[in-house]
Amino acid sequence: MKTRYVYIETFGCQMNVHDSEQMAALLEKEGYLLTQDSAAADLILLNTCSIRDKAEQKAFSELGRLVKLKEKNPGLLVGFGGCLAQHLKEGVYKREKAVDFVFGTHHICRLPEILTAVTTGKKRAVETCFFSEIQSLGVFAPPAPGALSAFVSIMQGCDNYCSYCVVPYLRGPEMSRPPEEILAEIRRLACCGVKEVTLLGQNVNSYGKNLAAGCNFVSLIKAIQDVEGIERIRFTTSHPKDLSDDLIDCFGSLSKLCGHIHLPVQSGSNRILGRMNRGYTVEEYGAKVARLRAVCPSISITSDIIVGFPGETAKDYQETIDMMEKIRFDSLFSFKYSERKGTAARTFKDPVPEAEKRRRLKELQALQDGHTQEKNWALEGSVQEVLVEGPSKNSDLEMTGRTRSWKIVNFKGGRELVGKKVNVLITRGFLHSLRGRMTER
Length: 441
Ligand code: 5AD
Ligand code: SF4
Known about the structure:
Elements: E1 4-10, H1 14-29, E2 32-34, E3 43-48, H2 53-67, H3 69-72, E4 77-82, H4 83-88, H5 91-95, E5 101-103, H6 111-121, E6 125-127, E7 149-153, E8 155-156, H7 167-171, E9 175-176, H8 179-191, E10 196-200, H9 217-225, E11 232-236, H10 245-253, E12 260-262, H11 270-276, H12 282-295, E13 300-307, H13 314-327, E14 331-336, H14 354-378, E15 383-391, E16 398-402, E17 408-412, E18 421-429, E19 434-438
Parallel strand pairs: 1-2, 1-3, 3-4, 4-5, 5-6, 7-10, 10-11, 12-13, 13-14, 17-19
Antiparallel strand pairs: 8-9, 15-16, 15-18, 16-17, 18-19
Helix pairs in contact: 10-12, 13-14
Residues 51-52, 164-165, 264, 266, 304, 306, 335, 337-338, 340 line the site of 5'-deoxyadenosine.
């Protein structure tokens, strides 16, 4: 049988990157090989993101480019998936006629079925309903050869309805995977050489809500701590309102849980946090950060902030700046508010002018750069445990890896170190990375 190739283009977050890995694993079982060359593909899948307008625009411009390949290769199939597909449904065909099928966020595991329907019936499919139970992929998605890290999805959807966010509408209600399934997957990953797992969910802190009593996020990570071969555990994303004291304590007691937490704050103004429906105050957020730092002094704390939310006054914005000065994040993802269809915030008055949003974002990012640089300088002279990933981007004589706190470290060393944990004395802290030398200590 002729080899068939699939090209998958991913937009957006880690969740989407992982969904694409799952698509590749499923299609491999159907006889497809993954290719990085879109011109060589028999099947092209776009795994789109809809979180902000910019992500949508990117997906459409890429779709425009890819469908041109159809003129040269009429047999080429194009599938449009992910959050934007979930949002637009059959509307995708109005924007781009060359699409062959549209599959929503609950339909990844149905890809083989959808492909058969499209190729045999020659009809255009639109599969975007939500299922009331979490859909099991049915196949094990193996890590890339030599990969030390892997993502593991522990839940899907979100019940939080932050007023600016489309995720609950596009990924459906929150549903957790059974712990036995997650643990079985992690054991298999460990057998394939994976040493670090990152547990994925929109709000991992509420893991287990729909499962048996006693099954929660803390019990899950404690069980993962016992998996032989796994040396590091990470997770993302945490919602501050659901970050329990029990979980905070794990940073002091679980040796494999890495000292890094991504804890999106979104704003430093209590008025705006209320309008965002976040369920906590700046003071409560600050108290959780203080507890995290008390339990694990070396923990790195990263966050997300939205500027220019409707009604954000100069005073609200200043409160965000003041909060950043107080908390001092290790790094930050910051965004201009982007109006999303169907969300509550879309009906809110007093939009912030685009130019002002831009100005606030630029100023806030410059402030954060200063804090990030400061945090990295502070690590000079310290010894960090680094899991060695491979040669650094700039030199074959240098290795690169990450600290437990998720910072990139480059240091002199050979390939025999790949996959090992080594101690590195930090000699320089830059804005985006650290430099050091291996040490026995
Ligand atoms: N506009 C801007 N940023 C948004 N985010 C989510 N929705 C929006 C929106 N409508 C940001 C939040 C979230 C991150 C993943 O994306 O900061 O934490
Ligand atoms: Fe969106 Fe809020 Fe859910 Fe995060 S917690 S996915 S910001 S609704």
